Amino acid sequence: MVAILGSDPELFLVDHFGDLRSAIGLIGGSKENPRPVLTGPGFAVQEDNVAVEFNIPPSKSREEFIANLSVMLEFLTNEVQQLGLALSIRPSARFPENQLTTDAAKMFGCDADFNAWTLEQNPKPVCDDPTFRTCGGHVHFSTKLPVVQVVRSMDLFLGVPSVLLDVDTERRKLYGSAGCYRFTRYGGEYRTLSNFWITDKKLMGWCWDNAQKAIKYTEDNRELDDDDFLSGYATSIQYCINNSDRGLAKELMDEIQSF
Description:
Number of domains: 1
Order of helices and strands: EEEEEEHEEHEEEEHEEHHH
Distance between the termini: 17 Å
CATH class: Alpha Beta
């Protein structure tokens, strides 16, 4: 079973000097009303606090997933170049205070999400640094499988390896904890990953491949109750992701090979 995947990555903008610039008032679109772009349905952009967020249509194959992401990155690169700016794909950054003067820029946090391990709502992040901002690389998946089990599988197949692949550890202190997800009308949204994996096509392919492995693992073990699903690895998976424990990630990666 090949699952249909989508994504809505976030990115920062920088000027010719490499200084961060707020996207507010430059890109258009909002969470409630994204700005459609390109020729096909599902391609859209929006301002998300000081970051740029883009949407891709649901992808039915690895090639389509990579192509959809790539065409949006190319579109945005060309669009912001006309503003004298460039894209900056990084999971976290501290913005100059002169870029955070508007009410929209001062808004911190997003709508509530949930923890697939505790089955509770995640607390709203609190940050002592008002200049700190983050970017996610969330993975949307269409499935009739139990969403909580899919998210736990994605923690093992995506979240744990991301500890080795994503050099940024600051974002995880506020966002992207283990098991972070939302329900959607078509399945779910896995919210643990930052935007690190959209930096090149190999990582885009890695994301597709491992998301599919997670869904297949869920399909093969769907008869288990939520409490029993990956229960032998639950503590290790959560600790690994939440604490950016690279040594434990390598150990768990060895376990993944046996699956």
